[in-house]
């Protein structure tokens, strides 16, 4: 039993899921291919794959296996014969030229026998070196995967030529970091019974997950965490509904568990299913069919370390790593990001069951199209980002002042090195790393942007008429970034300021977790003006964690426990109980804190004093702790700081005086570090230029 | 105090965290320049000195415990008992009554279990839910669990560190809550080997999530040992000598208050160090992702047979 | 400054320090086979050249003939000797040492890494430097990125893989505060990960973005962790020009002791498995492998190249050349040799730039002469030919599994 010697495959990738509504037409292979090929650069020639779900498939299992040679194939057939109660019908080898041939057969048997057969075959073909693998064994799902880009795999199985269509497609393009030989067994999707999944990420709980499944009917592993995810989903959903399985697998934070937010998972269940939960970055899209309906599930890890967006255009539901995949098929779809630790679930017959986050229609919009203006219009369609950037550079060097770039769909690294007094308009969906390292110039996006906008930007303007995703304005040190819609995790992380260079990030919608993490300067303003009549918080948790400078304004009241990195409430409550047992606190005090949804340092300072406060403070403070001042107030005294920039923001998006005035009359939560004696920077020759 | 593995470096580290030395209680000590630790500079004393831990780079992110959450909580006994970190403090009355009482209180406040064995000084009954106590003390207070040797009835069975688990089979069938590998009972095996084999044995029987594993004793020197033992399969690691040394025993003449503060700071320091180690490996959740996750370690020049018992791969793969 | 008595186990013992001081003072070799290796127990110390076993008492010749020239980044950067000085930041070091290291690179024809913390204006004038893009992006803008010969994306370092840079508050004085744009007196702890690099494809994306913006070679620096071979092949596939691997035992200005002492694997193992993996995948040619971490002598350097590295990085050794006596108090800011003390605006005493540069330059020359002597002794005429020549090595009392993995025969 040497399973721990399994060589580990670490894959990174692009994922896609498309599910049709019951009254919409089936989805063709070529459509799926067009979409996944949009993120070809996320993958490589080392692996890709598809899974197709059809509700009206037959009642027999279609079993597909990769085999290295005739002997391995014989073994597969022999074993299937033993377990196939009703017999099996060979469909033959689909890819005779490949190093690992793909062989298929219909098998008539019951679920338990098939499970045992699959495990037995996979273990036998794994001992002493990989000689084969059963990679697809469902009634309603068929996996097509191999070595190559998605277009190559499509060709291998002739999915387009044969006009293969489905109710649900899962697709994947793979970026591995190893390949001892190039085997299709490491390609996604990974299937276990009627579940097929594609995954982007590298789960750090791999060891724990492997141990979990090892004693639950899976005796060999090819070595990818993705395969484990498929096994775990399959296993858990035999014991609980899929909503609960998914809520558990995203590994809820303890506070979510104790507040009943994780699909009412109990502590006892949390302990029982230990090892089945996923830790580490992941975005997962999974398909499932129970014979009645077809489901598409998507899960994002609780720190949102991988991108994951979902879409709906009235006919189809989409799950994708990047928005570009969705826009390539559906220009007008509503697209929104799954929240950190979020679960999206939709079915062909029921529609959306879980949206992946709250209030998605309020905060995430389809940006309106605009006609391109400017001196020059550049069409990005079909061009690589290098070619596009090269064209832009040439035009600016030739003296053009205003360029409009059209048909942008996921192009990355746009807007690097835009000279001052020049303007670049982007029409479409800007890809990752927009406006990185920029020092000047103005970049406007008529559409949504993606991750990492304005990284290490030292000046200039970025105006986004839609949403941005994770890590907007990382180490932003000058200029301003305006986002009409919402932003994701870690916005304004490490933002800094210098002398007279104070950067601004203004967000019209909301932000998720870690807003202003390790911020050392600059100003962030979150307005949420589409939610003026709603009672909802505009930020997630851990706002201003590690903040050492600068200031954050969030409209509305932000609960104290959302700010900073407080210790777990059970730790605090237990400590306070201990103090009560020593007579330093009353039972009432303890009950008060127990009743709070979470306990912040502010709560403790407000209620306690003397020895009790001194004692419990050790849980909240440390040598790296920086006290934050949190005030809720109107912006009257802040107009000098924020007035101009917010006015500019409203003007930029044509939002009108009345709204501007209404928003500014609201209460804002203002967060900044308590000032210690800080010296002002003097006019001395600087070690590096500003 | 004379055991060779209590090097000046180790002692100073523990005392700084407890606040018995230095000026930053509760803080993981910072060092500079290259490591002087085992196995290649300082000599290795235990197998765990040949185990090195993983760091997350490139393929997945590491986590900043100063700014983002790393959850160190552990649930024992099918969710009945919560610990804020995988630590149990084993107390002995030989260390003096002031220390004993202080440690009970500190452990309670910091939400770790104190293993009091057969001793429960007066006035400490109210801390019962934070205590592991001998089955003989049944009835004196409401304890977290009772511990007894094989043969006696208790929720947790205390065994020696050995590679065989005779007698454990029946006990497991009776639905015991936990198994506690106590170095003080001898047994002949190294703690790390006993823990790893016990963890695997429980998994083979499909009992791992039903039966908690506690393990430890006087050779546990700090949070690195705790981390490695957890990764080898322990839900909680028992520390005894390390706590005494940290507060300045033997020799320190301090009152209960001072001892209590020192034990609290030591535990706080352990928790922070554990977060640093786990965060560096990209693990944000101890309970699910660290316990028994041998994948996070590698062995440097360790005998193959031992490596196999531990289930740890060799360094370089 | 005299070396203080070392009461606890120390790798950089008096013999090693005196050897490096000899090189720094005279620029001439002291020995051929490193005598200090007998005093320590790394795997690297127990791997020997067969030639040494045949003639251990060999004395250095004044005219060794071997050729130490090599190149990095698919031949874009030429080197006179396979040494890289690096990556110690302005802040970790007190300024003068940073300049000395940068000037040494220009004078001797090697490369110095400037670390995370921006460029001192004097360092900016030097040409043969790499700038570092680290998780906090301290002191780095597009102009800085365009300076020097290349960019190093620092993912991790040997002393604390998985943890970001750490400049203790006492060292965040006004000059540092201005360079890094953070408040005075507060610890500057760089984030643990790059918050835009959470996966291998994200790394590829960042490499491409930096190349798109500057056109320069991009290296990736990592600490040695599990699956280092897969990480290295991933780095190569993602378009980097080279990898800098920092093994366990490497130096640091400040790190939590528990991390420094427990995370990370030895560089000698990493170099061997990475070299073999890159070759297997057809990724080795032109891609530069730099080995770092406790490199203490020319013999260490030559061994690491024989195990599979192209270039070897010196960190602590360079500091010792400039006078470091291993007090291990860099994080407190009171370095008695003025190398890692906090940077004051009007310091009472500073290091002599002229002297520290001279010592470092001499060290490089002396080191190189010792390397040439070793190459002559083992019968290899150039560093380029030495790469991956594991057949020249023998393991004495090294575990069989380790030797097999490293591709080295046992005695």
Summarize the helices and strands and which ones pair or pack.
The complex is a heterotrimer of chains A (690), B (317) and C (411).
Chain A: E1 11-20, E2 27-28, H1 29-37, E3 48-53, E4 61-67, H2 70-83, E5 88-93, E6 101-107, H3 111-124, E7 132-138, E8 141-146, H4 150-157, E9 165-166, E10 168-176, E11 190-192, E12 195-201, H5 206-214, H6 225-236, H7 242-249, H8 254-258, H9 267-272, E13 282-289, E14 294-300, E15 309-312, E16 316-320, H10 323-327, E17 334-337, E18 343-347, E19 351-355, H11 360-363, E20 376-379, H12 385-397, E21 402-409, E22 423-429, E23 442-446, E24 461-464, E25 480-483, E26 504-507, E27 520-526, E28 549-555, H13 569-581, H14 587-595, H15 601-607, H16 610-620, E29 628-633, H17 639-652, H18 657-664, E30 668-673
Parallel strand pairs in A: 20-21, 21-22, 22-23, 23-24, 24-25, 25-26, 26-27, 27-28
Antiparallel strand pairs in A: 1-10, 1-16, 2-9, 3-8, 3-10, 4-6, 4-7, 5-6, 11-12, 12-13, 13-14, 14-18, 15-16, 15-17, 18-19, 28-30, 29-30
Chain B: H1 8-18, E1 30-31, E2 51-53, E3 74-76, E4 81-83, E5 87-90, H2 97-109, E6 113-117, E7 131-134, E8 145-149, E9 156-159, H3 168-173, E10 178-182, H4 191-204, E11 212-217, H5 223-232, E12 236-239, H6 241-247, H7 256-280, H8 286-289, E13 297-299, H9 304-310, E14 313-314
Parallel strand pairs in B: 5-6, 5-12, 6-7, 7-8, 8-9, 9-10, 10-11, 11-12, 13-14
Antiparallel strand pairs in B: 2-13, 3-4
Chain C: H1 14-26, H2 43-46, E1 47-49, H3 50-54, E2 70-72, E3 77-79, E4 83-85, H4 96-108, E5 111-113, H5 121-124, E6 129-133, H6 142-145, E7 150-154, E8 166-167, H7 174-180, E9 188-189, H8 200-214, E10 218-223, H9 228-237, E11 242-246, E12 255-256, H10 257-262, H11 267-280, E13 288-292, H12 298-307, E14 311-314, H13 316-321, H14 353-378, H15 383-386, E15 393-395, H16 400-406, E16 409-410
Parallel strand pairs in C: 4-5, 4-14, 5-6, 6-7, 7-10, 10-11, 11-13, 13-14, 15-16
Antiparallel strand pairs in C: 1-15, 2-3, 8-9
Helix pairs in contact in C: 1-14, 4-14, 9-11, 12-14
């Amino acid at each position: 039993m040497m399973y721990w010697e399994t060589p580990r495959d670490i894959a990174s990738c692009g994922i896609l899921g498309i599910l049709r509504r019951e009254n919409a037409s089936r989805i063709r292979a070529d459509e799926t291919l067009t979409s996944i090929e949009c993120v070809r650069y996320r993958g490589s020639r080392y692996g890709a794959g598809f899974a197709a779900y059809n509700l009206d498939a037959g009642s027999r299992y279609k079993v597909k296996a990769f085999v290295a040679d005739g002997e391995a194939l014989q073994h597969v057939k022999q074993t299937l014969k033993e377990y196939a109660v009703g017999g099996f019908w060979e469909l033959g080898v689909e890819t005779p030229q490949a190093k690992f041939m793909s062989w298929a057969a219909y098998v008539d048997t019951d679920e338990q026998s098939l499970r045992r057969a699959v495990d037995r075959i996979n273990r036998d073909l794994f001992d002493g070196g990989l000689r084969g693998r059963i990679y697809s064994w469902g009634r309603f799902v068929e996996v097509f995967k191999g070595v190559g880009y998605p277009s190559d795999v499509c060709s291998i199985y002739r999915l387009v030529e044969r006009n293969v269509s489905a109710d649900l497609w899962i697709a994947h393009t793979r970026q591995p970091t190893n390949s001892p030989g190039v085997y299709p067994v490491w390609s996604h999707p990974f299937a276990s019974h009627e579940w097929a999944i594609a995954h982007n990420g590298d789960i750090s709980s791999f060891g724990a997950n492997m141990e979990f499944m090892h004693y639950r009917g899976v005796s060999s592993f090819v070595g990818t965490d993705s395969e484990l995810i498929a096994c775990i989903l399959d296993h858990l959903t035999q014991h609980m509904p899929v909503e609960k399985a998914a809520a558990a697998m995203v590994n809820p934070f303890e506070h979510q568990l104790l507040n009943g937010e994780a699909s009412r998972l109990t502590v006892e269940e949390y302990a029982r299913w230990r090892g089945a939960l996923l830790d580490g970055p992941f975005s997962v899209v999974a398909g499932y069919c129970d014979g009645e309906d077809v489901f598409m599930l998507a899960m994002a890890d609780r720190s949102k370390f991988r991108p994951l967006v979902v879409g709906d255009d009235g006919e189809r539901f989409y799950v994708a790593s990047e928005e570009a995949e969705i826009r390539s098929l559906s220009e007008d779809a509503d697209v929104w990001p799954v929240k950190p630790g979020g679960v999206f679930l939709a079915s062909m017959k029921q529609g959306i069951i879980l949206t992946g986050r709250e209030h998605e229609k309020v905060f995430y919009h389809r940006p309106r199209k605009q006609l391109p203006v400017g001196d020059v219009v550049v069409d990005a369609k079909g061009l690589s980002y290098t070619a596009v950037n090269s064209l832009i550079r040439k035009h600016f060097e030739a003296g053009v002042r205003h360029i409009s770039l059209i048909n942008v769909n996921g192009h990355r690294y746009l807007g690097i090195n835009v000279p001052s007094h020049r303007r670049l308009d982007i029409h479409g969906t800007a890809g990752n790393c927009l406006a990185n390292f920029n020092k000047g110039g103005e970049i406007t996006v008529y559409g949504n942007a993606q991750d990492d906008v304005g990284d290490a930007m030292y000046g200039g303007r970025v105006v986004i008429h839609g949403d941005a995703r994770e890590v907007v304005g990382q180490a932003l040190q000058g200029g301003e970034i305006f986002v009409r819609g919402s932003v994701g995790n870690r916005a304004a992380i490490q933002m800094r300021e210098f002398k007279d260079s104070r950067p601004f990030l203004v967000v019209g919608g909301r932000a998720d977790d870690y807003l202003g993490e390790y911020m050392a300067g600059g100003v962030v303003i979150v307005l949420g003006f589409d939610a003026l009549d709603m009672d909802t918080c505009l930020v997630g948790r851990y706002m201003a964690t590690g903040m050492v400078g600068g200031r954050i304004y969030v409209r509305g009241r932000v609960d104290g426990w959302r700010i900073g990195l407080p210790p777990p409430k059970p730790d605090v409550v237990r400590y306070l109980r201990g103090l009560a047992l020593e007579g330093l606190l009353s039972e009432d005090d303890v009950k008060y804190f127990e009743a709070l949804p979470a306990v912040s340092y502010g709560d403790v300072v407000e209620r306690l004093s003397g020895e009790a406060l001194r004692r419990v403070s050790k849980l909240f403070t440390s040598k790296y702790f920086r006290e934050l001042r949190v005030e809720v107030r109107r912006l009257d005294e802040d107009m000098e700081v924020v007035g101009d920039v917010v006015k500019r923001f409203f003007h930029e998006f044509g939002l009108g005086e009345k709204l501007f005035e209404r928003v500014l009359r609201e209460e804002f939560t203002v967060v900044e570090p308590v000032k210690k004696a800080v010296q002002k920077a003097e006019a001395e020759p600087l070690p590096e230029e500003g | 105090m004379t055991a060779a593995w209590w090097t000046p470096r180790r002692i100073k580290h523990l005392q700084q965290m407890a606040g018995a030395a230095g000026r930053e209680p509760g803080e993981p000590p910072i060092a500079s320049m290259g490591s002087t630790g085992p196995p290649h500079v300082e000599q290795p004393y235990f197998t765990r000195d040949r185990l090195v831990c993983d760091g997350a780079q490139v393929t997945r992110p590491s986590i900043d415990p100063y700014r983002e959450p790393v959850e160190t909580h552990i649930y024992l006994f099918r969710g009945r008992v919560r610990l804020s970190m995988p630590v149990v403090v084993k107390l002995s009355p030989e260390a003096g009554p002031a220390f004993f009482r202080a440690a009970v209180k500190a452990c309670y406040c910091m939400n770790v279990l104190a293993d009091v064995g057969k001793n429960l000084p007066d006035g400490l009954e109210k801390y019962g839910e934070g205590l592991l106590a001998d089955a003989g003390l049944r009835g004196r207070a409401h304890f977290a669990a009772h511990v007894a040797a094989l043969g006696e009835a208790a929720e947790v069975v205390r065994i020696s560190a050995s590679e065989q688990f005779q007698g454990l089979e029946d006990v497991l069938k009776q639905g015991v809550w936990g198994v506690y590998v106590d170095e003080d009972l001898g047994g002949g095996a190294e703690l790390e080997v006993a823990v790893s084999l016990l963890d695997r044995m429980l998994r083979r029987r499909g009992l791992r999530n039903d039966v908690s594993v506690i393990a430890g004793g006087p050779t546990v020197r700090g949070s690195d040992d705790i981390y490695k033992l957890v990764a080898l399969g322990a839900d909680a690691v028992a520390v005894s000598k390390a706590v005494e040394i940290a507060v300045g025993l033997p020799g320190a003449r301090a009152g209960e208050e001072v001892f209590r503060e020192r034990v609290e700071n030591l535990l706080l320091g352990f928790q922070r160090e554990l977060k640093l180690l786990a965060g560096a490996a990209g693990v944000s959740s101890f309970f699910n992702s660290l316990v028994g996750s041998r994948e996070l370690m590698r062995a440097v020049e360790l005998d193959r047979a031992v490596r196999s018992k531990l289930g740890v791969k060799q360094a370089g793969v | 400054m005299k070396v203080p008595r070392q009461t606890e186990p120390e790798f950089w013992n008096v013999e090693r320090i005196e050897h490096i001081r000899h090189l720094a003072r005279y620029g001439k070799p002291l020995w051929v086979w490193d005598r200090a290796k007998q005093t320590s127990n790394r795997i690297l110390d127990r791997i020997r050249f067969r030639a040494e076993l045949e003639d251990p008492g060999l004395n250095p010749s004044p005219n060794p003939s071997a050729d130490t020239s090599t190149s990095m980044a698919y031949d874009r950067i030429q080197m006179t000797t396979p040494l890289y000085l690096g990556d110690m930041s302005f802040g970790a070091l007190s300024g003068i040492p940073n300049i000395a290291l940068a000037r040494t690179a220009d004078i001797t024809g090697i490369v110095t890494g400037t670390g995370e913390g921006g460029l001192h204006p004097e360092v900016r004038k030097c040409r043969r430097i790499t700038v570092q893009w680290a998780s906090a992006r301290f002191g780095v803008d597009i102009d800085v990125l365009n300076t020097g010969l290349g960019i190093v994306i620092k993912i991790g370092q040997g002393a604390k893989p998985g943890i970001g840079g750490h400049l203790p508050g006492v060292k965040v004085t006004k000059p540092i505060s201005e360079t890094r744009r953070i408040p005075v007196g507060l610890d500057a702890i760089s984030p643990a990960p790059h918050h835009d690099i959470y996966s291998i494809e994200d790394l590829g994306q960042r490499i491409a973005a930096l190349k798109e913006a500057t056109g320069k070679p991009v290296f990736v620096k990592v600490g040695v962790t599990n699956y280092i071979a897969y990480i290295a092949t991933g780095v190569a596939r993602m378009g980097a020009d080279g990898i800098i691997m920092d093994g366990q035992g490497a130096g640091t200005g400040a790190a939590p002791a528990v991390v420094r002492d427990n995370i990370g694997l030895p560089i000698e193992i990493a170099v061997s498995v990475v070299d073999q993996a890159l070759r297997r995948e057809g990724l080795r040619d032109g891609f530069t492998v730099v080995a770092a971490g406790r490199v203490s002598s020319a013999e260490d350097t030559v061994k690491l190249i024989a195990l599979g590295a192209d270039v070897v990085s010196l960190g602590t050794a360079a500091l010792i050349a400039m006078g470091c006596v291993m007090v291990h108090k860099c994080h407190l800011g009171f370095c008695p040799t003025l190398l890692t003390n906090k940077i004051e605006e009007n310091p009472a005493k500073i290091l002599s730039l002229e002297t520290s540069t001279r010592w470092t330059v001499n060290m490089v020359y002396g080191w190189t002469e010792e390397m040439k002597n070793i190459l002559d002794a083992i019968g290899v005429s150039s560093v380029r030919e030495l790469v991956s020549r594991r057949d020249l090595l023998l393991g004495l009392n090294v575990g069989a599994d380790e030797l097999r993995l490293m591709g080295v025969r046992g005695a």
